[in-house]
Amino acid sequence: MEEWVMQNPVNISGLSRRKFLKVSGAGVVMASTIGSGLWLPGAASAEPYSGKHTWISPRGTIEVMDDYAIWVAQAMGYFGDLGVELELQPGPPGGTAVVQFVSVGQADMGFPAPGILGNSIENDMGLVSIFGTGYLDLFNIAFRKGEGMTDLRGLEGKTVLLGSAAWQSIADPMLKAVGVDVTKVRYIEAGFPNWTAALAAGEGDACLAWEGLRALLEKNGQSFDYWMGMRGSPLPSNSQVVRRADVEDPDRRAFLQAYVKGMAMGHEFAEHNPRAAADIVFKALPATREGFGARAGTESLMQIHRTFKGDLSQRAGWGEHDIAGFQRFFDVQREIGLLSTEINAADYVLNDFIAEGNAFDRDQVRADAYAYALPDDLAAVDMAELEANFYSSAIN
């Protein structure tokens, strides 16, 4: 039995809870809250919209830059003006537990990769995606310096390290989509959070990584060459997933529409002033300032933001899903045996919320971003240097 402890979940309105999760040998996720008994899948719990809306991370932590749009929307009052109160919780790494928690009402929204969403659809978990945060593929394949390859078919017969076995549902479709025979790739679960250190120490031939993490690894002395998904993969990445029943309920749908608008405003703010967005994350999560520092924190946020943005001139707005990309993802999953049924992406990946979600005052959000007073450490970050070196570790 594997146990994961959720440390220091954060409620952005001030309330804090501490939950302990256990994953049984059968893969069933259970949670208990101190002093409140045991939560089991299907057990009665508070109505999901009776209090704070609970968002759950797939990474095992929220002490990262990835969720900047949420923190910006909170700090700048965008969520407050829209009547949105939100609690962020870290979930076990891998993402599988995220869809389970949302499905049974232990969380209200999750941020899984498309492969995890596909698995939830096949298992009839009643979930749909309403905001395509990751328009481009944010996942990368990392290699030790000088050992990289631009054609990932070279991984056939090689070993790829993963932090969690569940990440194979991310790696396999990405590799298959660029022509790799994934039956010839060997995966090793090297453990979260040490899988990248294992690669640096000489184990395996490559590992799964992602934008945002790339900046932190570099800061901590783990310098790799990267085949970057945002440049070479045709697939999308993580999105905001909720219960279909909530989309069909008028009151909850209205709340979700407001949430989407706040998220879009947070992304727009970061587009104009990524250093300000980084400072907002640092203030919400002080450990991120200590862990990343001003330069790496800004760089991490910029890396993630670029995959979230894609070519915005070709999109209906922030959060529009690439439905064709999701369809390709689900088709690839089926081709390699990760799904046994066909999925029509348009039935589960919804752009219904995007037009209204992007109907906000862009001039005001831009003005907010430019008017933000930066602290000295972030004001000193050389944005031109970060831009110039953005792809310096890319090999594709």
UniProtKB/TrEMBL annotation:
<keyword id="KW-0472">Membrane</keyword>
<dbReference type="InterPro" id="IPR006311">
    <property type="entry name" value="TAT_signal"/>
</dbReference>
<dbReference type="GO" id="GO:0009228">
    <property type="term" value="P:thiamine biosynthetic process"/>
</dbReference>
<dbReference type="InterPro" id="IPR015168">
    <property type="entry name" value="SsuA/THI5"/>
</dbReference>
<feature type="domain" description="SsuA/THI5-like">
    <location>
        <begin position="70"/>
        <end position="264"/>
    </location>
</feature>
<keyword id="KW-0812">Transmembrane</keyword>
<feature type="transmembrane region" description="Helical">
    <location>
        <begin position="20"/>
        <end position="40"/>
    </location>
</feature>
<keyword id="KW-1133">Transmembrane helix</keyword>
<dbReference type="InterPro" id="IPR027939">
    <property type="entry name" value="NMT1/THI5"/>
</dbReference>
<dbReference type="InterPro" id="IPR019546">
    <property type="entry name" value="TAT_signal_bac_arc"/>
</dbReference>
<protein>
    <recommendedName>
        <fullName>SsuA/THI5-like domain-containing protein</fullName>
    </recommendedName>
</protein>
<dbReference type="Pfam" id="PF09084">
    <property type="entry name" value="NMT1"/>
</dbReference>
